[in-house]
Amino acid sequence: MTDVAKFRPERRGRRLRRTEPIRRMFSETRLHPDMFVAPVFAVEGNGRSEEVDGMPGVSRYSVDRLPSYFERLVGAGVRSVLLFGVPGSKDERGTGAYAPDGIVPRAISSIRRSFPELVVMADVCLCEYTSHGHCGVLSGEQVDNDETLPLLSRAAVEYARAGADVVAPSAMMDGQVHAIRRALDEAGLDDTVVMGYSAKHASAFYGPFRNAAGSAPSFGDRRGYQMQPGNRREALREVEEDVKEGADIVMVKPALAYLDVISEARRRFGVPLAAYNVSGEYSMLKAAALNGWLDEKSAALEVLTAIRRAGADLIITYFAEQAAGWVKEGR
Ligand code: PBG
After folding, report:
1. Residue with the nearest Cα to atom 14 of ligand 1?
2. Whole domain around residue 118: which residue ranges?
3. Is 6 one of the annotated active-site residues of the chain?
4. Maximum CA pair distance of the chain?
5. Could you tell me if the CB of 135 is within 6 A of ligand 1?
6. What is the percent of the chain with per-residue pLDDT over 70, rounded to a whole number?
7. In angstroms, rounded to a whole number, what is the distance separating the alpha carbons of residues 104 and 55?
8. Would you call 244 a catalytic residue per the annotation?
9. Would the CB of 127 count as within 6 Å of ligand 1?
10. Which contacts of 221-224 are long-range, i.e. CB under 8 A and separated by 24 or more positions?
C-alpha cells in the first residue's frame, strides 16, 4: 500500500466544473424561452377549460377562454404557440379544417389583435376533423394523397388569412409543402411561413395527443403515410424534399427517440429546424414526476437541453410554460 506513488493527473476536467459560475461560463448549450413553442388546443363551445386525459397540466380551451390562458403563457415568457382545433362535428372530408369560420380561424382572430407580440402557428391536418380520424380523405381504405392536397391548401390559406404567422402541415401527404406554398402565394399571402412536419414518424408517443384532439383513426393506423421509426436515411430524404418544396422551417418528430435524425438534419441543411417533444414524451415524464420517481424540473430541463444540443432551433413542447419560467429564473 504505502509504496504506491500518488498519481497526479495533469489534465483535470473537473476544473471547469468546480463552481456554478464556472459551469455557467462553459455551458455549451443554453435554453431560452424564445425557442419554445407551446401547443394549444382550441375546442368548440363556451366556458370550457378541461384537462386532457393523460396530460396533467395541459387543457383544452374554448375560444372565449383562450385570452386568459394566453395571458398566462405570455406572462411566463412564451413567445409562440402552435394551435390545434377540436371541432364540434366531423365528416368524411374534414370540412371543419378548412371552413372559414372553423374553430382554428376563430381562435386565431380572437387572439391575433390582443397578442401582437406572439408568433401564432397553426397545425394543418385533417385528422381532428374527419369522421374516420385519418389525416386525409379516403378512397376506399386508403388515404388519397392528391385529393387531400387542395384541402390542406385551403386550410392553410384560411389560417393565414385569419392571421397565423406560420402554417404547419402535419398530414404527411407528399407534396403538401409545395401545394400549400403555391396556394398561399396565389392568395397573396407570400409572407406566411411554412413549417413542414418533414420527418414525422408513426409513433406510439402520439397517444395522449389523440385523446386531446379526439383524432385517433377509427380503423387501421397511420403507417401508410407516417414514417417507420427505424428509417434514418428516409427521414433525411423527407427533410430534403421539404426544403426543396420551399419549407421555411423543417421538423423532426418525435424528438427524444430521434435525436440522431435531428442532429444529422442540422448538419446537412441550413434551414431552421424544429423538434416536436410530443405528448407521450411529456406524459411519461409527468407521470414519473407525479409519482415522485423523477424530479420534474431537472428531468424536463435535461430533456429540452438534449433536444437543443442535438441541433433544434425550436422546441415544440407541452413544458413550454413551465420551462420558460424555469429558464428565466436561471435554473
Ligand atoms: C396531426 C398531429 C398529430 C400530432 C401533431 N399533429 C397526431 C398524429 O399524427 O396522430 C402529435 C402531437 C403530439 O403527440 O404531441 N396529424
Report:
1. 206
2. 29-329
3. no
4. 85
5. yes
6. 99
7. 21
8. no
9. yes
10. 222/134, 222/135, 222/172, 224/142, 224/143
Residue 4 lies in a domain: no
Domain CATH number, residue 56: 3.20.20.70
Q: Is the pLDDT of residue 190 over 70?
A: yes
Instruction: Calculate how far, in angstroms, residue 167's C-alpha sits from the geometric centre of ligand 1.
Output: 15
**Residue 107 forms part of a structural domain:** yes
Atom of ligand 1 nearest to the CA of 170: 16
pTM of the model: 0.96
Task: Give residue 34's identity as a one-letter amino acid code.
Answer: D
Instruction: Examine the pLDDT at 113 and tell me if it is beyond 90.
Output: no
* Distant-in-sequence, close-in-space partners of 298: CB < 8 Å, separation ≥ 6: none
For the chain, what is the mean pLDDT? 96
Average pLDDT estimate for 11-35: 97
At residue 214, the pLDDT reads 87
Residue 242 pLDDT more than 70? yes
CA of 315 to the centre of ligand 1 (A): 15
Nearest CA to ligand 1 atom 9: 206
Q: pLDDT band for 330, please (50, 70, 90 cuts).
A: low
* 18 in any annotated domain: no
Q: Based on the structure, what is the number of domains in the chain?
A: 1
Angle formed at CA 50 by CA 45 and CA 54, multiple of 5 degrees: 135
Does residue 102 sit within a domain? yes
Which is the catalytic residue, given 200, 244, 286, 328? 200
Catalytic residue among 6, 90, 244, 253, which?
A: 253
**Section 201-216 average pLDDT:** 94
